[in-house]
Amino acid sequence: MGVRISDTADVDPRARLGEGTSVWHLAQVREGAVLGTGCVVGRGAYVGPGVSLGNNCKLQNYALVYEPAVLEDGVFVGPAAVLTNDEFPRAVNPDGSLKTGADWEAVGVTLRQGSSVGARAVCIAPVTVGRWATVAAGAVVTRDVPDFALVAGVPARWLRWVGRAGVPLEDRGGGHWRCPSSGETYVETDGGLALERDHDAEETP
Fold first, then answer.
1. What CA–CA distances, in Å, run from 164 to 61, 176, 179, 184?
2. Smallest Cα–Cα separation from 77: which of 47, 37, 34, 50?
3. What would the mean pLDDT of 32-59 be, rounded to a whole number?
4. Residue 166 and residue 150: Cα distance in Å, rounded?
5. Coiled coil where (predicted)?
6. In the chain, count of helices (H) and strands (E)?
7. Cβ(91)–Cβ(103) under 8 Å?
8. pLDDT tens by residue, 131-164
9. Is a pLDDT exceeding 70 seen at residue 130?
10. What share of the chain is helix, strand, coil (3-state, %, to 5)?
11. What is residue 101's predicted lDDT score, i.e. its pLDDT?
12. For 102-118, how does the pLDDT look when each residue is reduced to its tens digit (9 = 90+)?
């Protein structure tokens, strides 16, 4: 299947791209970045030095993923979304001198398995977006997002639970939820959500 790189893309030879990965027009993949199998890097997207993508990730057009971000398998980053890496950004030091790489420490965003970040959303490092969670378009994420949560707004706040299919879950009562698309069932405990089979496995002696 091979790797597909557009003639206009800029992929550093020190980056590692997995089988079946595609990098489209005007995208840039920097040195030391590691992309798994089956990834798609859209037009004009940016992947910073040392950024790690799992398998089957999708970065849509003009998404900006700054180092040292970590994206697990199956992550979606929408058009023009940004994963930042500077907690206290300044162009200059207090004495007015231009900042260099030695004057600040990059901190990364972590996107867990299956999570999605909508178009033009911004994740302010260091935050973690949980497994199968969804960040709505235009949201600004300033704190960690639980597994299976849908968050929206500025700053982003929890709205409801979503399943692995990305569809809002139906409340079945008693802390139990069901996905109308897949039929999967979930259980809510201690403010979090888990697939019922995951929860059962945790409870098995």
1. 23, 15, 8, 9
2. 47
3. 98
4. 9
5. none
6. 1, 26
7. no
8. 999 999 999 999 999 999 999 999 999 999 999 9
9. yes
10. 5, 35, 60
11. 86
12. 889 999 999 999 999 99
Tell me the torsion sign for CA atoms 172, 175, 178, 179: positive
Overall average pLDDT of the 161-171 stretch: 97
Say how many residues make up the chain.
205
Q: Which residues contact residue 93 at a Cβ distance below 8 angstroms, ignoring those fewer than 6 apart?
A: 99, 103
Reported as a single tens digit per residue, the pLDDT across 57-86 is: 999 999 999 999 999 999 999 999 999 999
Task: For residue 202, give the amino acid letter.
Answer: E
> Whole-angstrom Cα distance, residue 48 to residue 85?
10
Is the predicted pLDDT of residue 204 greater than 80, yes or no?
Answer: no
Q: Is the pLDDT at 201 greater than 80, yes or no?
A: no
Question: What is the C-alpha to C-alpha distance for residues 39 and 133, in angstroms, rounded to an integer?
Answer: 19
In order of start, what are the domains of the chain with their CATH numbers?
Answer: 4-162 (2.160.10.10), 167-205 (no CATH)
Quickly list H helices, 7-156.
none
Strand partners for 178 = 170, 185
Cβ atoms < 10 Å from Cβ of 173: 6
| Cβ neighbours of residue 61 closer than 8 Å, sequence gap 6 or more | 42, 43, 44, 45, 79, 80
Closest CA to 188 of 201, 170, 176, 172: 176
Distance in angstroms (rounded) separating the CA atoms of residues 117 and 109: 12
CA distance 137 to 116: 10
